[in-house]
Amino acid sequence: MGRAVTSADGRLLARALADPASTATLDGAGWQALLAMARAELLSAALACRLQGLPMPPAARRFLDDALASFEQGRTVALWEAEMARRALAPLGVPVVMLKGSAFLAAGLAAGQGRFVGDLDIMVPHEAIGAVEAALLDAGWEWVKPDPYDDAYYRQWMHELPPMIHRERDRMIDVHHTILPLTARPTPDAAAMIADSVALENGLRVPSPQDMICHAAAHLFADGDLAGGMRNLWDIHCLIGEFGTEGLAARAVQHGVEAAVARAVRQAGLLYGTDIPDRWRVRGPLDPLFTRRLTARDGWGREARPITRQAFYVRSHWLRMPPAMLARHLWTKWRKRGQPS
Amino acid sequence: MMHDFAVRIGPVGFRVGSDWRAPVAALADLYRDYPAPQDGIADFTVRLFADRPWRRFIRPRVMIGGDYVLPEAAPLSLRHGLLAAEMAMNLQMALGQRRFLLLHAATVERDGRALVMTGESGAGKSTLAALLMTRGWRLMGDEFALLDPESGMVYAFPRLISLKNRAIDVMAAAAPGGRFGPLLADTPKGAIRHLVPDARSIAAMETPARPALILFPTFGHDDAAREVSPSEVFVRLTQASTNYVSLAERGFTALTRLVTTVPARAIDYPDTERAIARVEALWAAL
Questions:
Q1: In this predicted model, what pLDDT tens digit does every residue of B26-83 receive, in sequence order?
Q2: Are A73 and B38 inside 8 Å of each other by CB?
Q3: How many separate domains does chain B show?
Q4: What backbone torsions phi and psi does residue A199 show, to the nearest 5 degrees?
Q5: What's the pTM?
């Protein structure tokens, strides 16, 4: 089985997600590679949702049924965690906007079908951040990073508080006041995101569909190194599938993330065949490189293409902060290397 | 990967990829009577790899990888590659298994009913299970008992029996016709030698059994036995389970059913002969 499986990349997974019927031609080795990749990209439950009802080998069905059961349990836990945060913050009377996976699950979106959720991400108005922090500490959350440099760095330059973890439930919460680090070049309109968010029945809020796409795109292409990018791009594919692209371009300009959004929409079209208007289909010279990075996963579930990965890792830091600051940051981190964080 | 091997152990399929031939060759030899994963699709992937290219050749060092990993897992010497593979397979089960409630226990079966032995590392579960195997019991597994939440049945997971230190000589004497792996000296857990479960245990590995007795053996004390209350069994088994928390309500329901329907005993034993006699007496009195 060695060769054929090793030469496969993330496009095998992308094709199965986008066109479930395409799995009909897979042999055992093909299924094995597909399932290993899906698990590594945290997309196994999303794949299970997509392939429900299709014929497949019993061993593949069992694998995907397990992923689905795991997802259902994860959803219960994620929604409960959101409810715990709601109760802790309700007395403050500030709007609390759920972001990413928790929002997809709570709002019952297509992007939430089979979506694994790790941390709870919420966004609150910048001016309320001190009160929110105090209320969470009071309700049993505590700091994860006791390192003073990291703590100060987060508070001065990041778009979120240093991560906190609940001491009994062992779940992390990320409290955002905007969606990109303050050191990044674009400055998203966080106030507009909160103002245009939509209230759910329990009082928690989720961003407008356009803002969810802008956030996912900014996170993927204007911040990180594209690790786990297949899942983020799948979120974007599902959001566009459910809400279309109407009003998206204008909103992206308002947040200063039009390049990231254009790239996200384009890459979703390239990788998942997302139904997008022709005006979004402008080819960029770097598109193949981005696709190459996004699909850098082999049939053994391993990260592939180390050089491409390294290049995008460097790019992520370049995007995150100006050069002099980056040098200072890396110097500090280098001197503290090996110390427990 | 360069070398690979696939096997089914009980209801679980594994695929092992390795940068070196030796660990895979050892696995292929010891597991030669086992079937391949169903449909050629393994539930879990294990990878044994060199963290730096030169580590493949110069003082070769085996890193343990796979679908599920522990960030702090220490590498092993290539001499212990077989142990690395076995540890990695166990790790996939411990961290990734979601179909069964996993109990850290050795299990043997007779007349369709299962005896589940659990306890701290070093309590002698592996040795007792292996000895019982030589005396007419079917070995279901020496590491994990797989409790099916739907049916309440225990499924077998008869991987290689991992004998440590003194147990190696005990079993060499008790199972002279047994198939043993190479002696792995000076591993992080001391000396280790694997014993292949007998033909009958392998042939019947797809047959589950109804749990009939839960035993907490402790080696090194005077011969004694006491009843263990369902509440104590429950707490001890939650500690002996690696996925009780992630199975949530399914795990709670399965475990509650187990402890309220199956009797439990704690036994102390000064030597294996008396342990075996004690087990047979308890079993006969059920």
A1: 999 999 999 999 999 999 999 999 988 888 888 899 999 999 998 888 899 999 999 9
A2: no
A3: 2
A4: -80, 140
A5: 0.91
